[in-house]
Here is the input.
Amino acid sequence: MRRYVIFCLLCTGLFFSFATASAASEEKPLQAVIYVDEQPVKTEYIVKNGHLYVPALFLKHAGAFVNWNRQYNAVIFQHNEKMISFPVGKKVFYEFLRKENRWDPHPLAEVTMKMNGTPYVPLVTVAKALEMDVTYDRASRNTYVTSNVEVAENQLLYGDRRLKVGALTFDDGPDDYYTPQILDILKEKNVPATFFMMGKNVAKYPQQVKRIVQEGHGIGNHTYDHPDLRKAWTTDVTNQIQSTQYELMRVVGRQPDLFRPPYGALTKADVKLLNELGFRNILWSVDTLDWKGKTGEEILEIVHEQVFPGGIILQHNFGATGGELHGTIEALPMIIDELRKEGYTFVTVQTMLDLQKWNR
Ligand code: NI
Here is the structure.
């Protein structure tokens, strides 16, 4: 009974908070910030009949696995031990009862709906069914979701700051234009680097991948074709990662346990999945922005400004035959010479992780 009262107050609160915008928002989603485990998450939303709807994938920010079931035209959520299904267009949701091995229907006041192809679900109902907490703060007019799940962060932006080491990393490749030039420079300077590769490019340029491994460089998984994982169903995220592992296994007989998310963007659910798959998420501390077509001098300047011991430097090695990565090639020998002069030693990301472990 008490739960029921809280639930209604909550709905009223949410209704009032969004009421001013709701008149115009029935058909067109608006933008708002909702706090998930105290982190602000920007999301689209709709208010319909006093209920707050968000895109189903929003729940990934709270650590829930979210999938689309084509057969039943339904969104399936998994969180902790709960599994629930919200079929589009129906005033019902189902909870899977493991012991009885059946789906138990719950009547729903709000209909799950599709807007521009995106399924929208009633946030409060979904969150409650997944045993999350939702509160609305009248004073600040903010909505807070507490996921009630612990997910180890498991990401590395830089290594041990007490060691004067740096890791050069190259993303999105390989290709057959920039990659050989980069490998030539690294070979000449005797510097190991780490390549975070896209599965589709591994399949397209297997000789380059073989050369990368033969010449002693580290490799990592950078998804199959570079989607924003925050906007992908959990099964698609899994496929992106596993198909890339498959290609690497096929080409060089090795599967990395280093992962770099496209755009450095992951939800809590993606981190949870990557943890379960045994990956470390490798980000960076120096963003050269080389893909913007910067010159070698400009890239060197950025490295100079941002680098510190243990730094991980982000560059790219995929861009077909265009001129946009010429700066990367220009900058590379300069970066190596400069940092060496300052006393840096270059290591792969894997070595950086090992050094961190040994020095603990
Ligand atoms: Ni990338």
